Amino acid sequence: MIDILGEMCQKLGKSEDFKALSGVFTHVPSETPYPYMTLEKTKSEESFSSHRSNVVLKVWSRYRGDAEVSLYEKKLKETLEMAEWISGACLKIEASQVKILNDGLTRVLEMRLEIWIRGI
User: Fold this and answer.
1) What are the structural domains of the chain?
2) Which of 62, 68, 78, 117 could form a disulfide bond with 51, CB atoms 3.0-4.6 angstroms apart?
3) What is the largest CA-CA distance in the chain?
4) Residue 115 CB: number of other CB atoms within 10 A?
5) CA–CA dist 113, 120 (Å, integer)
6) pLDDT tops 90 at residue 82
7) How large is the C-alpha radius of gyration of the chain?
8) What is the pLDDT of residues 53-78, one digit of tens each?
9) What would the pLDDT profile of 83-95 be if each residue is shown by its tens digit?
């Protein structure tokens, strides 16, 4: 079976569209500068000959205003919705929203993804 988080970290981390990020992580190292991206698997289940995972992708930014997170949202939608972006997987963006944390500076783009992997 595909390590979906590892595969996504690798592909997004190597993409030219996301080279300005400090990294793509499942566990963020301390003192990591902004902006960066995190991935978290929230649910995983197998059914017949497929595997379904729910993943939350977040882009963390301290850029003043929404321009940076809006740009990453657009690039992520274009990248993630490409057919066969991950071999054998079908990916759907369930929801996308931007939150401002209580510090008034940190913005978090949160995308909820559903990923189906065929042929487990």
Assistant:
1) 4-22+52-118 (3.30.200)
2) 117
3) 47
4) 22
5) 19
6) no
7) 15
8) 899 999 999 999 889 999 999 999 98
9) 567 777 788 899 9
Report which residue type is found at 31: E
Residue 83 has what pLDDT?
59
Amino acid identity of 65? G
Q: What are phi and psi of 72, to 5 degrees?
A: -65, -35
Task: Name residue 11's amino acid.
Answer: K
Q: Which residues contact 116 (CB under 8 A, 6 or more apart)?
A: 50, 51, 52, 89, 90, 91
Beta-carbon count within 10 A of 113 CB: 22
Report d(CA 34, CA 78) in Å as an integer: 22
Q: 33: how many CB neighbours lie within 10 A of its CB?
A: 9
SS (H, E, C) 53-75: EEEEEEEEECCCCCHHHHHHHHH
